[in-house]
């Protein structure tokens, strides 16, 4: 790609073999390219970001899921978009241009669309996909946002964009295809939906 990169892998003691595979990749590509930074147990997405940032040496950080539901082929497009508009954040969107979702049942699609629609109506964030996590950030912007954000779980991604708008950061968007994981199961359940609605109302009341 011509881009100087490193891959920081944060694994929270998951039982799916992520850490073992990462160790194999580290042997193949070297510890300067593959940085495995595991944690003993699940401590939440926000703290995983902070943990990863401590070990990232670059000026820009791309956040993505490691199960390939976020395809690496979009990363060069994120970089191009960032350079084109000198954006602070470039967010992958499933709801704009030729973006889309593959492998979800109707219920999951309705939940995602509904969550996004409610967020757009209540918060008017100026970005089309609030619940996705495939994003490129300037490192210092990501640091500032993680300091400001208080949400956990599903709401965290949404708060990141809302706080970014509040702080005057610029956001570009790149249409992406999201493909549901082949192995493992989604963590989205009833508790997550209730947490999302509570978080949405909290953000509405405080922003």
From TrEMBL:
<dbReference type="GO" id="GO:0006488">
    <property type="term" value="P:dolichol-linked oligosaccharide biosynthetic process"/>
</dbReference>
<dbReference type="Pfam" id="PF00535">
    <property type="entry name" value="Glycos_transf_2"/>
</dbReference>
<dbReference type="GO" id="GO:0005789">
    <property type="term" value="C:endoplasmic reticulum membrane"/>
</dbReference>
<keyword id="KW-0328">Glycosyltransferase</keyword>
<protein>
    <recommendedName>
        <fullName>Dolichol-phosphate mannosyltransferase subunit 1</fullName>
        <ecNumber>2.4.1.83</ecNumber>
    </recommendedName>
</protein>
<keyword id="KW-0460">Magnesium</keyword>
<dbReference type="GO" id="GO:0004582">
    <property type="term" value="F:dolichyl-phosphate beta-D-mannosyltransferase activity"/>
</dbReference>
<dbReference type="GO" id="GO:0035269">
    <property type="term" value="P:protein O-linked glycosylation via mannose"/>
</dbReference>
<keyword id="KW-0464">Manganese</keyword>
<keyword id="KW-0256">Endoplasmic reticulum</keyword>
<dbReference type="InterPro" id="IPR029044">
    <property type="entry name" value="Nucleotide-diphossugar_trans"/>
</dbReference>
<comment type="subunit">
    <text>Component of the dolichol-phosphate mannose (DPM) synthase complex.</text>
</comment>
<feature type="domain" description="Glycosyltransferase 2-like">
    <location>
        <begin position="3"/>
        <end position="145"/>
    </location>
</feature>
<dbReference type="InterPro" id="IPR001173">
    <property type="entry name" value="Glyco_trans_2-like"/>
</dbReference>
<keyword id="KW-0808">Transferase</keyword>
<comment type="pathway">
    <text>Protein modification; protein glycosylation.</text>
</comment>
<dbReference type="GO" id="GO:0046872">
    <property type="term" value="F:metal ion binding"/>
</dbReference>
<dbReference type="GO" id="GO:0006506">
    <property type="term" value="P:GPI anchor biosynthetic process"/>
</dbReference>
<dbReference type="InterPro" id="IPR039528">
    <property type="entry name" value="DPM1-like"/>
</dbReference>
<comment type="function">
    <text>Transfers mannose from GDP-mannose to dolichol monophosphate to form dolichol phosphate mannose (Dol-P-Man) which is the mannosyl donor in pathways leading to N-glycosylation, glycosyl phosphatidylinositol membrane anchoring, and O-mannosylation of proteins; catalytic subunit of the dolichol-phosphate mannose (DPM) synthase complex.</text>
</comment>
<keyword id="KW-0479">Metal-binding</keyword>
<comment type="similarity">
    <text>Belongs to the glycosyltransferase 2 family.</text>
</comment>
